[in-house]
Specification:
By secondary structure, the chain is mainly α. Helices cover about 60% and strands about 0% of the residues. The protein has eight helices and no strands. Helix 2 packs across helix 3, helix 4 crosses helix 5 and helix 5 packs across helix 7. The longest helix has 14 residues. GO terms for molecular function: DNA binding.
Length: about 140
């Protein structure tokens, strides 16, 4: 939409004409054109944010912990991180929501894996023997 406004402005259309074409107020069109002329961009600048409490190492530890133990909660990961990185001596705590944000940005979803049925050691050996017995058989036997 904003690029369309700048294109129409380059063609010589007035703010009011652009506003009527795109069904926007002429002041909105004016702000967008002014921003484009001053900066050369029409996108919004990213908002400044506080620096991250977590280092890249801590973020990697969170992702690794979640991958190794998929059934654990974000709160448990936060507690592990608190003690493993000696954050307790620095009086720095990591909220569970921060852990969730890190996991989300790493592409991990808030899902628990399906529970696998318990297979005893005896049954595991029997299943392996069965599979090995029929491993070399043709598919149509």
């Amino acid at each position: 939409m904003r690029k369309h406004i700048t294109e129409l402005h380059k063609k010589g259309k007035s703010f009011r004409e652009i506003g009527k074409i795109l069904k926007l107020s002429f002041t909105t069109v004016g702000y967008i054109v002014k921003k484009y002329l001053e900066t050369g961009y029409v996108e919004n600048k990213p908002k400044p944010s506080d620096p991250s409490k977590l280092t890249s190492r801590a973020k990697r530890m969170i992702v690794k912990s979640a991958a190794n133990k998929p059934m654990t909660s974000a709160q448990n990961i936060a507690n592990e991180l608190f003690f493993s990185l000696s954050l307790s001596s620095c009086n720095v705590s990591v909220p569970a929501q921060t852990v969730r944000n890190v996991l989300h940005s790493a592409g991990l979803k808030a899902r628990t894996p399906r529970k696998k049925p318990y297979i005893s050691e005896v049954n595991r050996k029997r299943r392996l023997e069965f599979a090995m017995q029929y491993k070399n058989k043709p598919m149509d036997f």
